[in-house]
Amino acid sequence: MVFKFALLYRMGAWGAASCMVTICALVALQVTFRVVDALLTLVGIPRLGLSITGVSEIASYLLVGATFLGLAYTFVHHAHIRVTLLISRLPSRIRVWFEVACLIVALALSLLLAHGLIELARESLHFKDVSSGFLSIPLWIPQTVLATGVGLLCLALAEALVMTLRIAARDPDSFRELTANDDSDLP
Length: 187
Description:
Elements (H helix, E strand, L loop, with lengths): L5 H37 L12 H15 L1 H6 L15 H36 L12 H31 L17
Helix pairs in contact: 1-2, 2-5, 4-5
Family: Belongs to the TRAP transporter small permease family.
InterPro entries: DctQ (IPR055348), TRAP_DctQ (IPR007387)
Subcellular location: Cell inner membrane
């Protein structure tokens, strides 16, 4: 299966990766500041007291961003956990329709989640909600990242559903699920 919006999914993955790199950089910098303070204390010099205010708050928002922005990319590359013990034993003609049903349920749930996240971000923007930590981060910012990640997942699910329906309608006997080891068609 070739996904037409692979570039969007890849951009989400790059966003997720940049969130993870930023988390690593913030934590490494915070640890470095603490090590410097500890070394200064050992040699009798007063601490500098350097620290990044709200690093745990920022890191938690970045972790959620990394998780949600990577959803579509991991879906199209078959990295989500799937339980196929029973379905894999069915004939292709029946299995393709189980796949269609699962994709419909997943898409419906994802659309509901996306709608809820968009409404939440709109309310946060309207009421000017901010986080309650050390930093007053406007909550619409991380909520928009969540909605974007789920929106990309909805697009990937819809695209997979259309492709699976085409196979189900044209030649259901040719249906086979791609696995992580069998993704030669993927970009």
